Recover the amino acids of this structure.
């Protein structure tokens, strides 16, 4: 059965056509074979203000079970991509990243891989395991994540995880669309 996938990406990667290659990979397949429906929103909606945009993202994530972060050159630094990742974690979505700079752009050029956004986001379980504190890396320091508050966990964290900090890149996978044959393997990555 196909899953509803939410794609998080920097709009420049749509302009360069890289994000569209992944998002539209189902076009030449049956939707069931592709393994997903695209539940993303477009960046043009980002002109509405922070509260409205958060509401738009939150609503778009409601029926998505998986979030895929399309990683270009500047994705890691985009405020709303970070929010999409953190909100997806809060919601309990499965998520992973896909490096897309190896996909030729509209001029048939590729780039080296962009920084992994998961390297710049982290979380820490409270000492009692009942809360999750969110962090982002800025200027070489970990600071409290500003677009979402600490939240209570539905299930208490196991004792071994309590009080410990985790960089998201140590917990969440990334793939390269070209090197890891995303067209053929994307449905398996979604799981």
């Amino acid at each position: 059965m196909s899953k509803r996938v939410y794609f998080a990406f920097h709009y420049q990667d749509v302009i360069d056509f890289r994000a569209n290659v992944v998002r539209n990979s189902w076009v030449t397949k049956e939707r069931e074979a592709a393994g997903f429906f695209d539940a993303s929103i477009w960046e043009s909606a980002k002109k509405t203000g922070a509260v409205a945009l958060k509401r738009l993202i939150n609503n778009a994530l409601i029926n998505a079970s998986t979030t895929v972060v399309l990683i270009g050159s500047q994705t890691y630094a985009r405020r709303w991509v970070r929010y999409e990742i953190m909100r997806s974690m809060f919601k309990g979505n499965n998520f992973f990243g896909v490096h897309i700079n190896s996909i030729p752009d509209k001029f048939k050029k590729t780039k080296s891989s962009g920084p992994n956004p998961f390297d710049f986001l982290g979380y820490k379980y409270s000492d009692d395991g009942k809360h999750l504190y969110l962090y982002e890396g800025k200027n070489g320091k970990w600071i409290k994540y500003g677009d979402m508050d600490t939240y209570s966990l539905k299930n208490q964290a196991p004792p071994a995880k309590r009080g410990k900090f985790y960089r998201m890149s140590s917990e969440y996978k990334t793939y390269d669309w070209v090197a890891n044959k995303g067209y053929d393997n994307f449905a398996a990555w979604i799981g």
User: Anything to note?
Assistant: Residues 3-116+171-190 form a domain with the Rossmann fold fold (CATH 3.40.50.450).
